[in-house]
Specification:
binds guanosine-5'-triphosphate; 574 residues; 4 domains; binds magnesium ion; seven-stranded mixed beta sheet; Elongation Factor Tu (Ef-tu), domain 3
């Protein structure tokens, strides 16, 4: 028999925008103030029953036409948006709905954008909690949990100010392809994202927030909330933690079925599927069995290698095969050339794999954990074949300094970032820079356009080598450059450039220098007063033409002259 389970609600958003405070306000406990530095130290799943919601929003349910049928809501606080990716289930998310918390005074921040991108990727419906309305200047705090009731009692200018803030959120959301509106102005919740102004501090707006989340999840997700109470549990590992006296434990969310003490479960490690037997369960109090949806701490031997983001399931038919398949899809090594991906969890690796695929960036290998010397050597072997793919992309794990040093020695690029989208962007920027660098290096090697005049009275040696004075009219001359006359006949190669007996690496416009050329015989091949040019191949002319900005004005003029001579010569040849 099936019944409706509690929807799983993930709370995510930028650091300090008030995720934990909102949950605390809902629980009316004060966990946030107890946390060191205010940063969420652990994933906490907290359950709010239907009764709690009804008490909190007394009177409002009728007004908003919401009739509660779900048994409650299971909230999951995520210490960073990346934890959300660990609520994974085969490319999707086990979160049925999400609350994206935005500090209404601060507006959109990098992790707000990251959160939206992730919600979009997982196709998770969400509402926006526009938090900290009490901090708006002029806000007059009211003793109610209803936003609408409090809003009605605010001054007109304060109302206008809040709406102004909300509209800037609406505009931002539009950039991400979402239509949004303040919840009481939404006409179709399946087309518009509802924004609920709240204050975790004064509790204003909590009533509407809870009712809307409950209402929306039961209206649009009802079928997905059907569970089988008596089937073996399925869940997702959110965190792997050491606990005193219990060894390695896992914090997980069960989204279907029932987990009992003594059950055998499968889970994933870096070396594939592993099995263990549940010794004890906490949810958060000790429990003999836990029914979905619920957060649970599992104590069992052999959990050391468990990967965050790993699915887990009670041992049964085909479970092992299914897990193996999922593992191979994410943690793999291919024979193709590509970047090396290192991530902290299966969820973040999976999100990165699909993002890289979208951007057309090939992946050679994916593994979970810190980068090692072997990883660097692997990336180097790729770099030898394609320098742009010889990079390690590290997400949310710390690369040991020793490994970074080896990478530097081996010229393997290690790119680290804790924001999924930034990591990929950083890689793309690096490739662009490298390509630019390579091009510049190539241009430095190209022959440079120049025009020069054989100075009368400056014939120092007739031949082998011929040494004579020139004035550089435009561009630059360098040893190694081939020289031609105005008909395009190549005369020889400049062996050295000297000024007052000193050898120079180059001579630029306006300089008078002595050049030596082995192949030339003065007064026979060239005469005093003749104009000479550096010889450029057709390819060189084209390359310089494409990158005109790398040439000074005088060199551009020389290039034009050289181009004319070469073209004329080619035509004459035909
Ligand atoms: P992380 O877990 O570190 O990402 O932060 P968080 O989003 O959970 O934020 P948290 O709840 O820890 O709140 C951050 C700070 O904002 C704390 O100092 C809170 O007291 C404050 N704060 C949260 N909500 C409100 C609110 O509604 N009004 C005001 N004035 N301050 C708030
Ligand atoms: Mg927090």
């Amino acid at each position: 028999m099936h019944e409706i389970r509690s929807p799983i609600v993930a709370v995510l958003g930028h650091v300090d925008h008030g995720k934990t405070s909102i949950l605390d306000a809902i629980r009316e406990s004060r966990v946030a103030s107890k946390e060191a530095g205010g940063i969420t130290q652990m994933i906490s799943a907290s359950y709010v029953s239907k009764q709690d919601i009804e008490n909190l929003s007394r009177g409002l349910a009728e007004k908003l036409k919401v009739k509660l049928v779900v048994p409650g809501l299971l909230f999951i606080d995520t210490p960073g948006h990346e934890a959300f990716t660990n609520l994974r289930e085969r490319g999707g998310s086990i979160a049925d709905i999400a609350i994206l918390v935005i500090d209404v005074n601060e507006g959109f921040m990098p992790q707000t954008a990251e959160s939206i991108n992730i919600l979009k990727r997982y196709k998770t419906p969400f509402v926006i909690a526009a938090n900290k309305i009490d901090a708006l200047s002029g806000w007059n705090k009211q003793d109610t949990k209803s936003f609408l009731e409090s809003f009605g009692k605010q001054r007109e200018d304060v109302k206008a100010k809040l709406d102004e803030k909300l509209y800037s959120l609406v505009a931002k959301l539009g950039e991400y392809g979402f239509n949004s509106e303040r919840f009481d102005r939404v006409s179709d919740f399946s087309k518009e994202v509802a924004i609920i102004p709240v204050s975790a501090k004064t509790h204003e707006g909590l009533a509407e927030l809870l009712l809307l989340v409950a209402g929306l999840s039961q209206r649009y997700l009802e079928k997905e909330l059907y569970i089988h109470k008596d089937v073996p549990a399925k869940g997702s590992i959110i965190e792997v933690k050491e606990e005193k006296g219990a060894g390695t434990t896992i914090d997980a969310i069960i989204y279907d079925g029932v987990l009992k003490s003594g059950d055998e479960i499968y889970f994933l490690t870096n070396s594939g599927v592993k099995k263990t037997k549940v010794r004890a369960l906490f949810s958060p109090k000790p429990a003999e069995k836990v029914v979905a949806a619920a957060g649970v701490k599992v104590i069992a031997p052999g959990l050391e290698g468990a990967i965050p983001g790993s699915p887990f399931a009670v041992v049964g038919e085909s479970v092992e095969e299914e897990l193996k398949k999922q593992f191979k899809k994410i943690v793999f090594e291919s024979s193709e050339l590509g970047v090396y991906l290192k991530a902290d969890s299966l969820g973040s690796a999976e999100a990165l794999i699909s993002l890289l695929a979208e951007r057309g960036i090939p992946i050679a290998k994916v593994s979970i954990g810190n980068a090692s010397k072997e990883d660097v050597l692997f990336a180097r072997s790729i770099a030898e074949k394609n320098r742009y793919l010889g990079a390690i992309l590290v997400f949310n794990t710390r690369t040991p300094r020793e490994v970074l040093r080896i990478a530097e020695d081996e010229r393997v690029k290690v790119i680290e970032n804790n924001i999924i989208y930034r990591l990929v962007e950083n890689y793309e920027e690096w490739v662009k820079e490298e390509k630019e660098k390579e091009k510049k290096e190539m241009f430095a090697k190209l022959n440079y356009p120049a025009r020069m005049r054989f100075l009368p009275g400056c014939c120092f040696r007739l031949s082998k080598p011929a040494v004579f004075g020139v004035e550089v009219l435009d561009g630059k001359i360098k040893p190694g450059a081939k020289v031609m006359d105005k008909e395009g006949n190549v005369l020889g190669e400049i062996k050295s450039v000297q000024e007052k007996k000193e050898t120079l690496p180059e001579a630029c416009q306006g300089m008078q220098v002595a050049v030596s050329i082995d192949e030339v015989v003065l007064n026979k091949d060239i005469c005093e007063g003749d104009i000479l040019y550096t010889y450029l191949t057709k390819e060189e002319i084209d390359l310089w033409g494409e990158r005109g900005e790398l040439l000074a004005e005088d060199a551009k003029f020389a290039l034009e002259e050289i181009k004319k001579i070469i073209l004329k010569k080619r035509i004459e040849k035909k």
